[in-house]
């Protein structure tokens, strides 16, 4: 079959077209669906990290688009089209333009990371809500911030984005990026001078149409770094969401938006001090409780204040003093938290307690923790533990 004429490469801004249906057959990868080949198409097929276009062929929604090894583009629809008929196509332009912004923005950022640090783009995918970019080298936050700044300078410069297939003689002398050796015609993209890369995707006409490039996150990945990047409207929406979150956090902390970090540090320092005070109080309570506990006798106690760590401290202190079984309880979460110690095996006692009162928990032979339902009868629990 003759390769499909690729209107999306010739005129990336073309939204509608008319074409002849060349073939229509059952879709081999989707039972019950059909796939149609046209003599020409503006629908971009999935590839090169960029998702396919969606839209309409006549009154049939286009659900997926792929290109085969012979260069034929196939469009998935729920119903068949008739070979020989002329069909009107219309792509989902909002989706296409978003992909063009993301792809061009990725080129700009990747080119700058390469020129600044020698970092290679080893993985790329336009996902949702962000674009994934895998970079070959570990990069610091300052290095990424510098690259992001220069990338946005390129956007502001509004330079032309050129896509073309150079002759092989010219190609040999061009310093273009490519993840692998390429044979035959090689389509290059010059992203405003920031990047020269082999690419089959669709791109905006000038760097200014990218709008904004924002690195949302970075994490170590396979010896390099994995970036989540947003461009254009996605970047605008991400910044709006972050600013709204900053305003909300600032209101809760009684500071202006953008100054939450200082307030949170102060809050964490105060929290650390409170934790130290609580630990000291719970240690004192554990010591007092152990001192009052009768030696060599089982102990069951109910408290109102301790957290799970406080219960642990009390239980272990009493068990050390008495050398006998100890069970202590306090309200916690949605139930009655407990800590158990038993000279024989706390796990056996823990299982029996949970089975009898509908609790959950476990631990080691010497010590277990868990919780019972909030409405557990305390007298029945105490009697059970003292009779066991």
Automatic annotation (TrEMBL):
SUPFAM superfamilies: ThrRS/AlaRS common domain, Translation proteins. Its cofactor is Zn(2+). Residues 1-226 form the Alanyl-transfer RNA synthetases family profile domain. It is found in: Cytoplasm. The lineage of its organism: Bacteria, Bacillati, Bacillota, Clostridia, Eubacteriales. This is Alanyl-tRNA editing protein. It holds the Pfam family tRNA_SAD. Signal peptide: none annotated. The keyword Cytoplasm does not apply. SMART domains: tRNA_SAD. Keywords: Metal-binding, Zinc. Transmembrane segments: none annotated. PROSITE patterns: AA_TRNA_LIGASE_II_ALA. It comes from the Bacteria.
């Amino acid at each position: 079959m003759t390769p499909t004429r690729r209107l999306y490469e010739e005129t990336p801004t073309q939204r509608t077209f008319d074409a002849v249906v060349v073939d229509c057959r059952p879709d081999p990868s989707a039972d019950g669906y059909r796939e149609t080949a046209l003599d020409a198409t503006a629908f971009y097929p999935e590839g090169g990290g960029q998702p396919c276009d969606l839209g309409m062929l006549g009154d049939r929604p286009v659900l997926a688009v792929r290109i085969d090894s012979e260069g034929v583009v196939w469009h998935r629809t729920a119903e068949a089209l008739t070979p020989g008929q002329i069909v009107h196509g219309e792509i989902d332009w909002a989706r296409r333009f978003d992909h063009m912004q993301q792809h061009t923005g990725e080129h700009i950022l990747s080119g700058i990371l390469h020129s600044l640090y020698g970092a290679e783009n080893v993985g790329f995918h336009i996902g949702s809500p962000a674009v994934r970019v895998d970079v070959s080298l570990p990069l610091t936050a300052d290095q990424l911030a510098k690259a992001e700044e220069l990338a946005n300078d390129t956007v502001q410069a509004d330079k032309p984005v050129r896509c073309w297939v150079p002759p092989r003689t010219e190609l040999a002398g061009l310093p273009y990026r490519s993840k692998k050796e390429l044979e035959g015609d090689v389509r290059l993209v010059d992203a405003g001078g920031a990047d020269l890369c082999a690419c089959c995707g669709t791109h905006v006409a000038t760097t200014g149409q990218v709008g904004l490039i924002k690195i949302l996150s970075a994490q170590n990945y396979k010896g390099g770094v994995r970036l989540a990047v947003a461009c254009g409207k996605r970047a605008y929406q991400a910044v709006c969401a972050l600013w709204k979150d900053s305003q909300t956090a600032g209101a809760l902390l009684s500071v202006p938006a953008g100054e939450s970090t200082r307030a949170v540090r102060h809050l964490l320092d105060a929290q650390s001090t409170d934790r130290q005070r609580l630990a000291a109080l719970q240690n004192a309570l554990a010591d007092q409780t152990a001192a009052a506990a009768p030696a060599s006798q089982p102990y069951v106690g109910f408290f109102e204040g301790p957290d799970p760590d406080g219960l642990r401290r009390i239980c272990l202190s009493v068990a050390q003093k008495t050398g006998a079984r100890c069970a202590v309880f306090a309200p916690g979460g949605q139930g009655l938290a407990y800590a158990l110690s038993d000279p024989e095996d706390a796990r056996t006692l823990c299982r029996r307690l949970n089975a009898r009162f509908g609790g959950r928990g476990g631990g080691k032979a010497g010590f277990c923790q868990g919780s019972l339902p909030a409405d557990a009868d305390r007298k029945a629990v105490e009697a059970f533990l003292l009779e066991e």
